[in-house]
Structures are given as structure tokens and as C-alpha cells.
Amino acid sequence: MSGAGFLLTVNFFIAQCFCMFFLAVSARSRNRAAARWFAGCFAVASLSAIFELFVAYVYPPKLWAILAFASMLGGMFMLRIGIGQLYGLKTNRTLLAAVFCAFVALDYMIYDLPRGTLQHALPYQMPFAVALGMSAWAAYRARVTSFVDRALVVLLAVTSAHFMVKAFAAVFAGSGNTAKDYIASQFALVSQSMGAVLIVTVGLMLLCVLVLEIVADEKVNSEVDPLSGLLNRRGFDNRVDALMAGKGPHSIVLCDLDHFKSVNDTYGHQGGDAAIRAFGEMLQAAAPHGALVARIGGEEFMLFLPFAGKDAAMLFAHALRATRSVSPIPGLPPTARVTASFGVTEIGQSEPLRFAMRRADDALYAAKNAGRDCVREAEPPAVVLEVVKRAN
Question: Are residues 136 and 282 in the same domain?
């Protein structure tokens, strides 16, 4: 087997490996359809390596040469569809199919032109450049912002341009007088070497885009409470420091559903879940822009209100209390009402967040002791610190 034949075999197995990788990634990716199109892209394009070998050893060579061209081009058009799926772009598949058929017909017409001439090399390589250029343009139109996505655009554009360079390289290096001569030509060795590099590079870049999305989704899922749809304690802690760095005032509102155990006892755990879900939706809808809303315990919730003083936070908490006390809960009887108690504090200047949360928690307990379904404001930081000092 020649060096080019060996590289064709290597390229085939590399493409098959990437096909398996994309199928595996599709099981976890939210862009499942895109991953499967990419898997199909590599599977179909890899067939060109087999057909190229058939050209040299199996009659008739013209059939295998055209199939090699069509499989490679088909894989590239599948890549374009996958790019559209990845970035949520509309794709006219009928148009793509028409362009694909036109390019295959073009290859059939130029088959008998002299090899190693621009008359044959340019129209042969141009369809590949166009197909990859369409993918690069689609990714660019998506206005991607991450470094990996931008790198993918550049890589696709470079790969597209390289096919036009190959047309001139075929003339300069010589690609054989016939399709059968291609395998033994020096150009075939160079072409397949470049192909191997580009297969690996494009495949890894596409995998990188999908895997980074999976990692981002997993991070979000680990920071979100699945029942209420709000942040959990981890998600709150990971975000609050950035907001605390901004110039205040900032305030905290702690909320706790009243008599939640009796809700579970009366309506079952599904009723309790419905109450938590409804309360979370209400908090999310009422929270001002930039606020953090989290479920930090079983029936306990917290809001961090950036750039809001205690007066604004108290008004906000009173509005939440009034809304909760009169709002029905989907899934519970229309007459059922689940109220909530609230503790409010403004974070003192240079006060650690945990101290402010402790004061808000004390205010919440004061609201519970006052009969529930009410709002209480926490003691100022200086009063709490003085009590702590006396206790020590």
C-alpha cells in the first residue's frame, strides 16, 4: 500500500472515531440534534477514503471517483446542517440538496478533463470550499461571542480556503493523469496529510463547543433548585460576592412559609411541592432586575436586593406578604391559603454577609413569634454586635 493509501485508511478510522465521540456526546448535550448531524457528517465523509481506494483497485474507477467526491461533499453539507442546529439558525435543506446535486453533476462533467490542470482542479475543489464556506458563514452569522466559537469560525474559513489552495497544488505537484493514478501521486500524500490534520482539528473544535455547553449546563443544574426553579444555596453563594462588591446599600429578605408541616400533612407532599413551586414563581416574578432569589432550605427562601436600602426592602417584603396571603395555589383547593413570614435587614457598611443573614434570620423568627404572616425588620448591626460582645 502506498503512503497515500495508508493515510486514507488512517483518515477513515479517525473519522469513525469522531463519529462515535459525537454520538456519545449527543446523549448529554442539549444540542443533541447538532451532535448527531456532526456524527453523520464524519461517518459519511469517511466513506470517501474507501471509495478513493476502490478507484485504484476496483473497476469501474469513474463510479468510485464520483462516489468519493459525493460522500465527502455530502458530509460537508451535513456539517452545515449541524452548524445550523448548533446555533439555532434556519437551514434551507431543499436548497442545500439542490446545490449538492449540482456539484455532483459538475464533478461528473469534468471527470474526463485532463488531470493536473486548472480546468479540472478548480471546479473539483471549489464545491468543497463552498460547502465549508457556508458553514463558516453560518457560524459567523450566529454572532457567537465565546473564544471557542470564534475559533471555530476561523478554522472553518481556513479549511474552506485550503481547498482552493489544493487546486493550485494539484497543478504544481501533479495529481496523476487519471483518477487511478491519484493514489500513487505526490499530491495525494500531501492532500491526505492535510486532510488528517483538518479532520482532527475540526472534530476537536466541534467537540470542544459541545462539551463546554455540557459543562455549563451541568454547572447551572448544580446551582438551581429543581422544584422552585430558583437558585439553591450554592448558586446563591457563587453569585452574591460579585453583587456585594458594588457600592451599597444592599438588603436581604428572608422568607419562610407558615405552618408548612400542616400543608404536607393535609394535602400530602404533592401539595407541599405545589406551595413551594408557587411561592418560588411569585418571588421570581416580583424580584427586581439584578436581584438574587434562592431557596436555601425546605420552605425557606432568600432574596438579595442590590442597591436597595431597608425602607425599599421593607416595602418589597410587605408587598410579597400581601400577595402570598391572598393568592391561591395551583393544585390546592381554592379556599386553601399558605402565608409566609419575612425578616428584612440592610447590610451594614463593611459588615460580613453572614452577620447580616444572622440578623435577618433573627427578624424572621421575630415574625414567627409575632403570629406569622407578617414582616419584621432586623436590629441594626451595632446592636447585634453589642449583644455578642456582652455574651462573650
Answer: no
